[in-house]
């Protein structure tokens, strides 16, 4: 019993260092919340962490994220080791940036969410795909894709500083530093203010 009490304390101490935006008390609360959510009957990976559905339900109910496509990308960003499961460490460290990250950390996080294929660029095709998923299609509009193509052109004109037809991390970072509202330009991937 002493050993089982010791391990969580070591984990808490370690996470309070690595998730540097949370104090020990907050880390304890987040690990307890993790344990509660992992124990839900709908979670298939209860032994090791969150599966995609539990994670998406949590993002929706706690943080108001509703776009399934973007929520899957957020899951991939939290899931650092790509094992299709968010562990307690990935959960707490991910939330540290998600909830309290510096502008620099949030820029890096949003860029990772938007870089769909992980090649270090947000391409025209990736922008189109994200905007298509996050914008409501109005039935009155004959071809909503035309409007999305126009938005992609506007985004590139505003953000593509080296004019290579895609956004590098440097392009994205400079654009967001010049205009903070561009941080979530391609879909909501941070919690709402509440």
Q: What string, H for helix and E for strand, traces the elements in order?
A: HHHHHHEHHEH
Structural class: mainly alpha
Contiguous runs where pLDDT drops below 50 for at least 5 residues:
1-7
The assembly state of the depicted protein chains is single chain
Average pLDDT confidence is 86
Radius of gyration over alpha carbons? 19 Å
**Strand order in the sheet with the most strands:** 1-2
Distance between the termini: 40 Å
Q: How would you sum up the global shape?
A: globular
In the CATH classification, which architecture of the largest domain applies?
Orthogonal Bundle
**What is the H level of CATH, i.e. the homologous superfamily of the largest domain?**
EF-hand
CATH class of the largest domain: Mainly Alpha
How many E strands? 2
- Please count the helical segments: 9
Layout of helices and strands:
Elements: H1 2-18, H2 24-38, H3 52-63, H4 68-78, H5 88-100, H6 103-114, E1 121-123, H7 124-134, H8 144-159, E2 166-168, H9 169-178
Antiparallel strand pairs: 1-2
Pfam family, one: EF-hand_7
Domain EF-hand: 66-101, 102-137, 147-182
Protein name: EFCB1 protein
